[in-house]
User: What shape does this take?
Amino acid sequence: MLTTVQINALKPREKPYKVADEKGLYLLVSPSGSYLWRVKFRFHGIEKKMALGRYPDVSLKEARKKCDEAREQLSGGQDPLAVRLQAKVEAELAARTTFRVVADEFIEKMEREAKAPATLKNVKRRSKGTPDRRRRGTPFSDNMMLVC
Assistant: This one.
């Protein structure tokens, strides 16, 4: 098992090399002097490697905790890389799905369908949140999130 003192004593070499810790966790020391945490595991018989972060941004304790979380996912029958990718895609999708984006897509669709100019004008005005004099309410903001 590695210690912080041992990690701090590591020096870069001409080629990258690994220093093992435990349970597939290792520190990759690159020739540029960066220290990168990686964990190696097998999922359905295929060897995979997952990056956990850069040392000292991710401490030894945090790297071991992340490694244990990945092992728990494996024991539950999930691929830790696929879980991470799915979370990243969901976060990206949630960040992009604002009222403004959906409204712009709707307006483009209406323009493709050749709707009447008056209809397009009303939809554009309403999508900007400009209140209608006949209706009361608060205007929409650009970063209003949609909840489905």
The first strand starts at residue 17 and ends at 20.
